[in-house]
Design goal:
The structure is a single chain. By secondary structure, this protein is of the alpha+beta class. It is 38% helix and 14% strand. A hairpin with a 2-residue loop joins strand 14 and strand 15. Helix 1 packs across helix 3, helix 6 runs antiparallel to helix 17 and helix 18 packs across helix 19. The longest helix is centred in the last third of the chain and has 27 residues. The protein is flat, with a radius of gyration of 38 Å. The protein starts with a helix and ends with a helix. It comes from Esox lucius. InterPro entries: PGBD. This is PiggyBac transposable element-derived protein domain-containing protein.
Length: 709
């Protein structure tokens, strides 16, 4: 075989400079000139090939064969060099190659190359960056709860938006069918048909168990004084609660049997047993609330030890085993707007990976809108994903692994461990911005909604050689602070669920998801209650208080759907007059030990006066009157001046507590203060910003002067 050496060298240079072909026009050369020379190439070697010295053929057929052979050799050399990590060396000068067919060009990498016109080099924070194009925020609906803001919703009414009567009716129907199936399989526990009202009571006990944890479920029904938990005993018997738990089912058992026959085929649905309730809860989450601009996508673990192929192992979590759920949450409050359950590694529908498909399936643009900012972690972020989101008018930001950056042909910019902390390198690839920032370790990020550097500063602590710590300000990329603020939406959702989780031990994997759906419904209901309360300028309830009221209202549901107040067992009969007097005497004995004989005598005196006047004085009013009498007695006995003194004795208080111990509300501005008037015994502020001590006494003197006239 004949080989043209000039042709061979030109092909090597073309291979190495292929990435620069977008900015530099390809050079051409006359093939006749390059083919006029002959050379012995016995010393030229390519890995895996050996060439024998021959004379170069001038025929076109031989040149075409040589061209194909050299092209294959160059591909082999390039792959071997990349695998071994060696830097390819190109000759300093070589003749250019004539225009060749398009098939000789290298195919594009899976990650898209740099866009046309961008410079392939990393820049520093000293070089300015252009402001990226931001799409206007156009949500499909007004963000927030999609409810009447003027109406006062109770916790039960908000919860029933997720677990409506239709949802519970379907749950009861499938539970009754499963109980009948169990009876045919000779299970011994008795069963009677469950109704919607009884299912709501069952849910009230489930939510209550998340508030109060005991060692065994049977301890909730123990009647001894060590536990004394009357709520569960007043709602349902323990045998009935266990019977419902054993027979609980979310899908039709007949459809489950038909689906099990398809196991191992493409028609088998792994989530068949939870599909009815999952679809209903998911539709309610999307319909009742619309998220704000900043969203977070991450995976959430539903812990379980049941035997199922869907269960995953999480080495970074406290609970190692559970089910993986992809969640789209509002970064503002942690509201779960959408979720997908991971069903195993299957061939990607788009061919771009499971993480890519998970994000795209959660972002339903027609229902969501455009202009949203999506925050991701390194498990989901890739250059291909952010480009596709940008085409849908959605911005995104996240940490990224370097192999998913897609910067082919760009010199590697790995930061050494000795790089100065706070160093920033960035590179813009069209709409994508790649940044590398040295914090405690190198941080690589990709964004379509931020600039490279906007003079942002972060505070970091540094330990000096003498062991002391110093706080210093370091420059940071613009996307660091928004990312830290908004990426934790799913983590916030998980923490709210874990506070009062209703999850219980079970070997049935679908019951694990039932408890998870109850948790999602309760947390989303509480978050909607908070937004509605803020809109109507009311104080929202804490999550614990919300769950407590929800439990009591669910337990008092009547067949008509109204809430009925129900008294607990042990309090159905009114206390007798003798029992009331005994409890009152015990209370007075306790107060005698705490307050002394004078307090009890005065209390009896005021009690008689209140009975005559048909009114009851509160303990706070009693204490205020007592303090006022003591103050008048001290003024008459000693006489005191109006001067500021501390509300507590500073000699008996530790130095670091002097600014907070004994603080009272200022009588004039209602703010906390540690000063009071020695004569008037009134807490008053006396600081440079406000001198309430002077203003209050001026008003007091004016009132006394006016009353004297």
């Amino acid at each position: 075989m004949f080989l043209n050496c000039n042709l061979f060298l030109s092909l090597i240079r073309l291979r190495e400079e292929d990435d620069d072909s977008q900015t530099k026009p390809s050079e051409t050369v006359d093939m006749k000139e390059s083919s006029s020379n002959t050379i012995n190439v016995s010393q030229t070697r390519v890995r895996g090939f050996s060439f024998h010295p021959t004379e170069v053929s001038r025929s076109s057929e031989d040149e075409q064969d040589a061209y194909s052979f050299v092209k294959d050799a160059i591909k082999t050399v390039s792959k071997a060099a990349i695998k071994k990590g060696r830097k390819k060396v190109s000759p300093q000068s070589s003749p250019s190659l004539a225009s060749t067919p398009a098939k000789c060009r290298r195919n594009a990498d899976p990650a898209l190359p740099l866009t046309s016109g961008s410079e392939r080099r990393w820049r520093t924070e000293d070089e300015p960056d252009l402001q990226p194009k931001l799409f206007p925020f156009k949500p499909a609906r007004n963000p927030g709860p999609q409810l009447d803001a003027q109406k006062n919703y109770t916790p039960l009414e908000v919860f029933q938006l997720f677990f409506s009567k239709d949802v519970v009716d379907t749950l009861c129907l499938n539970t009754n069918k499963n109980a009948q199936r169990r009876q045919k399989q000779r299970f011994k526990e008795p069963w009677r048909t469950i109704s919607v009202e009884e299912m709501y009571k069952y849910l009230s006990i489930i939510i209550y168990m998340g508030l109060l944890n005991v060692h065994n479920v049977s301890d909730y029904w123990v009647e001894n004084r060590l536990y004394g938990i009357p709520f569960c005993r007043s709602v349902m018997t323990m045998s009935r609660f266990r019977a419902i738990t054993y027979s609980l089912h979310m899908s039709d058992p007949a459809e489950d049997e038909e689906n099990d026959k398809k196991k191992g085929t493409a028609g088998y649905d792994q989530l068949m047993r939870i599909k009815p309730l999952k679809d209903q809860i998911l539709e309610a989450c999307r319909t009742l609330y619309h998220p704000f601009q900043n969203l977070s996508i991450d995976e959430l673990m539903v812990r379980s030890k049941s035997r199922n192929c869907l269960k995953k192992s999480f080495e970074s979590e406290h609970e190692r085993y559970g089910f993986k759920v992809y969640v789209l949450a509002d970064s503002r409050n942690g509201y779960t707007w959408d979720f997908n359950i991971f069903v195993g590694k299957n061939p990607s529908a788009s061919g771009k990976g499971d993480s890519y498909d998970a994000v795209m399936n959660l972002l339903n643009v027609p229902c969501l809108g455009t202009g949203y900012h999506i925050y991701l972690n390194k498990d989901f972020t890739s250059a291909t994903l952010l480009r596709d989101l940008y085409r849908k008018h959605l911005g995104a930001c996240g940490t990224i692994r370097e192999q998913y950056m897609g910067l082919s042909g760009v010199q590697e910019n790995s930061m050494a461990p000795t790089t100065k902390r706070g160093t920033i390198n960035w590179l813009r690839d069209g709409e994508l911005l790649f940044t590398k920032w040295m914090d405690a370790r190198p941080v690589t990020m990709c964004s379509t909604i931020h600039k490279a550097f906007a003079e942002e500063q972060v505070q970091r602590r540094k330990q000096l050689e003498d062991g002391t710590w110093l706080t210093q300000s370091l420059p940071a990329p613009e996307q660091v602070k928004p990312y830290n603020l908004y990426v934790g939406g799913v983590d916030l959702c998980g923490s709210l669920i874990k506070c009062y989780s209703v999850a219980q031990k079970t070997m049935k994997w679908y019951k694990t998801f039932f408890f998870h759906f109850v948790d999602v419904a309760v947390v989303n209901s509480w978050l909607m209650h908070k937004d509605l309360a803020v809109t109507s300028s009311k104080k929202p309830m804490a999550q614990k208080q919300f769950r407590e009221k929800l439990c009591s209202q669910l337990a008092g549901i009547t067949p008509s759907g109204s809430v009925q107040e129900k008294r607990w067992e042990g309090h159905d009969e009114e206390l007798s007059k003798q029992q009331v007097e005994q409890q009152y005497e015990q209370l007075m004995e306790q107060q005698y030990e705490k307050q002394g004989k004078w307090w009890v005598e005065q209390h009896y005196k005021f009690e008689q006066q209140c009975k005559q006047q048909n009114e009851i004085k509160t303990d706070q009013q009693f204490e205020e009157e007592r303090e006022e009498e003591e103050r008048e007695e001290e003024e008459l006995e000693f006489g005191s001046m109006c001067c500021p003194v501390p509300t507590h004795d500073p000699t008996i208080v530790e130095s670091w507590k002097k600014a907070s111990v004994g603080r009272k509300n200022c009588r004039f501005c209602k703010q906390k203060t540690v000063w009071q008037c020695e004569s008037c015994r009134v807490a008053l502020c006396i600081i440079p910003e406000r001198n309430c001590f002077r203003l209050w006494h001026i008003n007091k003197d004016k009132k006394e002067h006016d009353s004297g006239e």
